[in-house]
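Before we proceed, please read the two lines closing this message. Tell me what the token row says about the fold.
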Amino acid sequence: MRHLPIFVALLSVPATLAPSAHAELLFHGDFETGDLKQWGYLLNEEGLSVVTDPVVDGTHSGKVQITKDNLWSNGLNRVEVQYKPDAARVSDGAESFYGYSFNVPEALSADNHQILYWETDSTYQQVMHVAIEGQKIYFATQKPSFTKHWEAEGAATPGQWHRLAMRVKWSADAALGEVDLWFDGQKVVDAVKAQTYLGNPAFVQHGILRQPTSDKLETLFMDDARFGTTLDDVKGTAPNGTAGGGVGGSGSNAGSGGQSGSGSSSPAANGGEATAGSSTSGNGASPATGGGGASPTTTGGGGVATAGAPNGVMQSGQNDSSCAVRSVGTSSRGALASILPLLGLGYGLRRRRIARRG
């Protein structure tokens, strides 16, 4: 019986040697307060409101309504909310997760509508963005050069909720910075490399930043915004009712002849870098069909399109923005393997002592 405490202590060791993933939801912008107070900053608040229909989670959502009169001090046409995480969560070497759901009741125009983007504090350089043009949606990073990593024609379907979730590894080194993106539960961008830390911690904004300014009245609903340390914190619920962080791969198409185009105009506020001019991707790959986690973007032989000459959209102004840690659990199998010999040794000693007494 004197050996029982040692036996119990040894059995408890594997639990201490096998840390589990630590999930922590750090922010939840769900509008369930019935107002906009969950958000740290509002851009053109007159275009923002809280509604009870439609919703994707709970009983409230946020409504964005943009007109030609919703101009920021630098002349940009925008209506947005902002969340600024603690600096340590979005600085060089950190890893974080963010997700939110959006719904456009009517198809947006073919103009560029940035519906989510990250930007640096104080210097206002845009890091990355998700944008809609008509019913096409795409994702791009800005550094070391403007690059579209994924796009999907017809995916921004009107009248339906869609879920975006992303992981960002923040790094000043483009070889170390990474981004994953999930759209409606499918992983469409897989660890693409980019310079994600631009010298200052980043903050996120979403709503509508529209370029050029348009006379059209346009609307977007948003709900269930989350910032956390694991994908489980932010994946929410996809439109089909499954977890919004599921793995799959819808991939974008670079049709025969390669994807070509004028490049999207992507503003970076307050002196930030202007983005793409004309660009052309390769020479004729067939469209990629996602599935089983396929690479998100298939382009022609020339690869993913990158920026041409800047389009001159440089900005000045005040607090302005053109504008998620993946924990890996350790198996306890190795710990058990190292402890079993000790248990055997203790058992053998006890048998020899009993034999001598007999």
Remarks:
- The chain has a mean pLDDT of 74.
